[in-house]
Amino acid sequence: MQYSATASDQPLVSVVIAAFNAEESLDRAVQSALAQTISVEVIIVDDASSDRTVAIAERLAVQDSRVRLLVSTANGGPSVARNRGIGAARGEWIAILDADDAFAAGRLAYLTALGGRHDADLVADNLLFYDWHAGQVVGTALPKSKQPFRHIRAVEFVRNAITGRSPFDFGQLKPIFRRRFLMTRCLRYPPQLRHGEDFAFIIDCLLADGRFILSAEPLYLFTQRQGSVSDQGSGQSRTLLNLDAMRAHSLAMLDLPRVRDDRVLSRLLTRRASAIRQQHNWNRVYPHLRARKPMALLEAMMTDWSNWPMLGRHLIRRWHHRAQMARIAQPDRTSLSNSTLS
User: Fold this and answer.
1) Is 30 helix (H, G, I), strand (E, B) or coil?
2) Each residue of 80-138: pLDDT tens digit?
3) β-pairing, 149-152 with 13-19?
4) Sign of dihedral through CA atoms 331, 332, 335, 341?
5) What 8-state DSSP symbol labels residue 176?
6) 38, 65 Cβ separation under 8 angstroms
7) Please, are residues 203 and 157 in contact by the beta-carbon 8 Å criterion?
């Protein structure tokens, strides 16, 4: 089923929102896309929601002809839903927006201009971490940089996507994609992946010789699964964690001719697969740490030696987090939050 109001002019950007039980956050996401300063269409792909998501999307489509709704009869996961949206897109660029996230003002104008100047196929920006319950921006994914942007190639991308080890996993970036590039290369999200699909899609684009630019400007509001300030789960994420599938995907890539011929890339993908396995083990340990059960924690730690460096990295990140929270308390951080949400 599709609800559509026909627009005569081709939009510059098609914003694709895969939505599953997103009644609390969908309006915010859509409004942030419609408020952009360039021509957009918003394609909401409902993934067989059981709440009021479809009703909210229908209302938004009635209110604004730039909004289209595609309704799925069976839940296929984010990759399948996004692929359906990509297939329906008409814009020169395609922007993926998660239903619990939002765009900062002017994001799409900035990224499309940057992509146009440098003939890029993918353009991403820094992320603004957003605490859902605190209702505020709590920091950025990447530290401030003197470089306004940089070119990212496959090796650098994977080097910065070592799960649980990279300071920030580049697989969480949200690029915009040139539609012509995706169409001519027949690129789509891997339908079997419901977790780690962004990494898989971006690396496929890079292996297809996509030109990728990463801007230092933070313009995408990324809702934290666990809020840094509120220390509460957002309750908005619908991602089904499946580290086994992520690891299997990284290992399967080692058989690709383009990867086999690149020793550095092969080594990094092997390292990523190993790190994912260690993260899987750590996920069994961490609940004991959070619950402050020292004996259960020690017993779980002894099951795999790799849990010890994982504990060390966790404590370092926790120290950095506390330092960041002290900076957030400064008045200029509050003004940043208010400006990005306006």
Assistant:
1) helix
2) 999 999 999 999 999 999 999 999 999 999 999 999 999 999 999 999 999 988 999 99
3) unpaired
4) negative
5) E
6) no
7) yes
